[in-house]
Amino acid sequence: MHMDGAGGYVRRLVWLQGADAVLDPVPALTIETFADHEPFLLAVHGGSCAVIADPTELWLHTDPGREADRIPITDAELVAAVTPPPRLQGGNAVSADGTFSVVFSHGILTQERRYVADLELDTGHRTARWTSAPRPLHPDDFPHDRFGDDAFDDDVERAVSLTASLRRDGLLTICSEGSDLGSMNRYGADFFTVATIASDGSVAERLWERAGWKRQPGKHGLHGRFTADGEYVILTPNFRTGEWKGRQRLLRLDDRQLLAPRMPRGRTTAAILDGSNGRWWLEHDGTLLAVDDLGLAGA
What we know:
Strand order of the largest sheet: 4-5-6-7-11-10-9-8
Number of domains: 1
Number of strands: 24
Mean pLDDT: 82
Low-confidence stretches: 1-9
Helix content: under 10%
CATH architecture: 5 Propeller
Number of helices: 1
CATH topology: Tachylectin-2, Chain A
Distance between the termini: 34 Å
């Protein structure tokens, strides 16, 4: 996304289809469209995607070069059930059943609560509706350790970040990148968790977790997002310190195995963008490419 010089934003979607990657310009939306919200991306089953502009509308993109369809979102009063009404936090959601768990928050300042609300999208009928009010996670279920020193722990209401969600087999799985998302890139995070979440917002099961970073030398932090097929979490370090030295890893959800990708020759510094059904899309020095084998090995 970048400014178009006329008070609007121009967004570009990268379509990753087959062996090709197509840059698709999307019509400019005025700056007011995202004045109060960070756009949220939905990875729709079958290769489409949608961008939620605000709680009342989304833009469905079905094919490269085709103009997006604007779809009103009904039952937005459910979002307003939380006072004050939360804003779209930005991030992405993957779903195998047409119901997406969308992330909201009360702004981007530290220690502001993150919520998740369910959105039902029917691409065939071009309809969308909210099916739940925003609900928070349970911060005490996470290894909260903002300062790495018990003597300096604060007594304000605790919160944890929520940046990506996956709905598969009737379960909600999330990535939490620590307590203070706003300061993570500067000061590092205290933990990173991949977990399934119960309907009341509590942690049902921890799938993978790293904690205690604030009590270790250096700065640490991970960014996590689910692949479009819902099979992996792409883990990207925020810093080049630590045992991974800035290199990405993949967490395979079925067996929770941490895997180290082997990039193609001459592309050792490539970044993994996404993966689906055995095919991986990479970015290297501004070039997009698709590969069928990353030579995944246990990390």
